[in-house]
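1st attempt posting a full record on here, be nice pls
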Amino acid sequence: MSSILFTNVSVFDGSGAQPFKGQVLVDGQRIVRVARDEAPINAPQAQRIDGRGAFLMPGMTEAHTHFSWNDQPSLSAIQFMPPEEHMLWCVRVAKRYLEMGWTSALGAAAAKPRLDVVLRNAVNAGEFPGPRYLAGSQEITILGGLADNTLPHMPFKELNFGAVVSGPEEMRATTRMFVKYGVDHLKINLSGEYIAGISAESSPFSEEEIAMLAAEAKRAGKRVAAHARSSESVKQCVRHGLELIFHASFADEEALDMLEANKEKHFVAPGIGWLISTLYHAEKWGITEEMATKMGYKRELETAAVTLQKMHKRGIRILPGGDYGFAWMPHGTNARDLQYFVDYIGMTPMEVLIAATRYGGELMMMPEALGQIREGYLADIILVDGDPLADLTVLQDPNRITLVMKDGEIFKTTHDALPPRGELHAGAALPADPGVETAASAPVH
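the predicted structure (as tokens):
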């Protein structure tokens, strides 16, 4: 890897400070110098990239990713994709995320036991382009719970979306199985989901089962992520030290108090885009706004907005991302979450970008190396044609993200000061999926 000097850029460093006109020098995988224009960097051997005033910022982190969700309208349709095609799908989606500026991602659950692990390993080995990735397990559930989609006449676990357990000992065995497979964290469905016919306010797991998961995960040095919409499920996360909390729509004041008291331990990825898209964008797939309202999604969205506003005011870390990969919210439209955080949670654009960058470094367990434009940090950098602080929707348009760098290597560029992509990165590449709705063309509520 050679040295690259970005000049004439507006540097958003992820610290919370306002952008400044400056220069950034990358050498190998790391950022080695950051300077303002009045104190230019002297690097005569570096390749110079004139940003022409573009917005330079840290790569973003998607905090609740399902690469194996294959843009279908149901969990069964996702699960029934054969494993060989499913792995290829994951590879293509990973490339799509990277090119949209998501240079890191946390896997919220895989549709088959090893999809996340194999994808992570292939990306780390340089076999395919993709974000730096933390691999999740399948969703752990109970008989009849969310992700148990076996039928009475076809009770084959191979056809099941999740890993079904009954009792602490089955939980111990399942946890150890996923640890053996090499996951970075476990995933448990602590509450229901309306679209699956299970109340989002239900909390089906026993304390003994959750305690076993927490103990086995801790023994193996793994974190735990939880689908936790109900108030009780959020409290269970705090009581048992489950670090990664997804949704938290119905968290009551007691749950918020518990979260606030432990806010250095937990991250919340609400997946608010799922609520909005299922309520307003799913009619083409048979779910009208009226039907989604009857399911409970309108009430949940209204409740979640209030809950998340309270959470934000208490200083609890809320990160963008969640459940993209369904037919009505396809992969590649994830940056909608950024504007939703402004519209529904009341964050400022600055706060949203910090959540997507600096908090992302913390989520990825690399707070001293990732998520900021700082000397010594990894060179995960994107160039944006436009100012996201003035209009976050520019990050929804792939044409406005003109350069993506991860670990000091350029994986995408449409910046005309640079040579074609093939001359910059010799790694394997797969073509973009045809017919995929992009964020730029998708309807936004």
